């Protein structure tokens, strides 16, 4: 039984071809200011290695009293990024209101975060808001290593008529003290791919690593497994980031990391 049978290859999602391997999504954990967003995007664009610019606009913080994002203002800054760089833009949505605002502000791709994927009620509300929209959506794995919860979220979005669908592997919460922030459990994305061959899988080595020094190793592992793309957080000045400061790279360091990856020849 496959509930994910009509998935469009990621290379055909837009008229501008996304034909690189890997597809690279990068940008800050959070949109903080127009200056931070535009300068990061321009530097990323100059590397000619990034196709999609990500930024968190509403941040799902685990604990209260943390930076929760700039909301509507950030959506306007993302439009400036689009105009000035031509990069595609990508934003996390957690409610129908977020979906509506992103659609109104010409965001190109939506993603569902790990905390939201964990809640079928929230995913179903998002699916209803997306019904009949031809929007590309990527779904991160849930916080806990429950492959069915991940598949269920993908199926709910797919049932709403979304064929531009991809999964993002960002690792799983370990209660124990571990070197990595989230344990990769590579067998889970491997099983997902074996069950749904057409489903593009993007790896997010930043949230797996939690620290700059392990990002390369995780990204290389994703390439060894022939994943379709990478989502890597970057910031014009990582040490000053308002969220996930330890795991963001400068655009220059990202460029170097990508150039150091050994990628299999990809047959599209
Ligand atoms: C993010 O991408 O910044 C984020 C909040 O990720 P996750 O949902 O994987 O924790
Ligand atoms: Mn983050």
UniProtKB/TrEMBL annotation:
GO MF term set: chorismate mutase activity; transferase activity
Top enzyme category: isomerase
EC number: 5.4.99.5
Domain of life: Bacteria
GO biological process terms held by the UniProt record: chorismate metabolic process
Keywords assigned by UniProt, alphabetized: Transferase
Membrane-spanning ranges: none
Protein's name in the database: chorismate mutase
Lineage of origin: Bacteria, Pseudomonadati, Bacteroidota, Bacteroidia, Marinilabiliales
């Amino acid at each position: 039984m496959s509930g994910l049978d009509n998935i469009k290859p990621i290379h055909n999602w837009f008229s501008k071809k996304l034909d690189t391997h890997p597809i690279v999504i990068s940008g800050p954990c959070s949109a903080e200011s127009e200056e931070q967003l535009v300068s990061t995007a321009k530097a990323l664009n100059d590397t000619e290695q990034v196709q999609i610019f990500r930024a968190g606009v509403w941040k799902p913080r685990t604990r209260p009293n943390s930076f929760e994002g700039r909301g509507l203002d950030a959506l306007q800054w993302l439009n400036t990024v689009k105009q000035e760089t031509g990069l595609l833009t990508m934003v996390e949505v957690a409610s129908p209101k977020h979906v509506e605002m992103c659609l109104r502000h010409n965001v190109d791709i939506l993603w569902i975060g790990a905390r939201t994927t964990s809640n079928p009620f929230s995913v179903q509300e998002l699916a209803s808001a997306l019904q009949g929209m031809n929007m590309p959506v990527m779904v991160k794995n849930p916080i806990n290593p429950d492959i069915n919860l991940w598949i269920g979220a993908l199926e709910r979005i797919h049932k709403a008529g979304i064929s531009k669908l991809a999964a993002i592997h960002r690792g799983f919460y370990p209660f124990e003290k571990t070197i990595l922030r989230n344990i990769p459990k590579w067998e889970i994305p491997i099983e997902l791919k074996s069950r749904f061959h057409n489903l593009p899988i993007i790896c997010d080595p930043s949230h797996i690593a939690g620290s700059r020094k392990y990002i390369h190793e995780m990204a290389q592992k994703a390439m060894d497994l022939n994943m379709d793309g990478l989502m890597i957080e970057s910031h014009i000045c990582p040490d000053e980031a308002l969220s996930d400061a330890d795991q963001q790279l400068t655009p220059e360091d990202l460029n170097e990391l990508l150039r150091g990856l050994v990628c299999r020849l990809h047959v599209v």
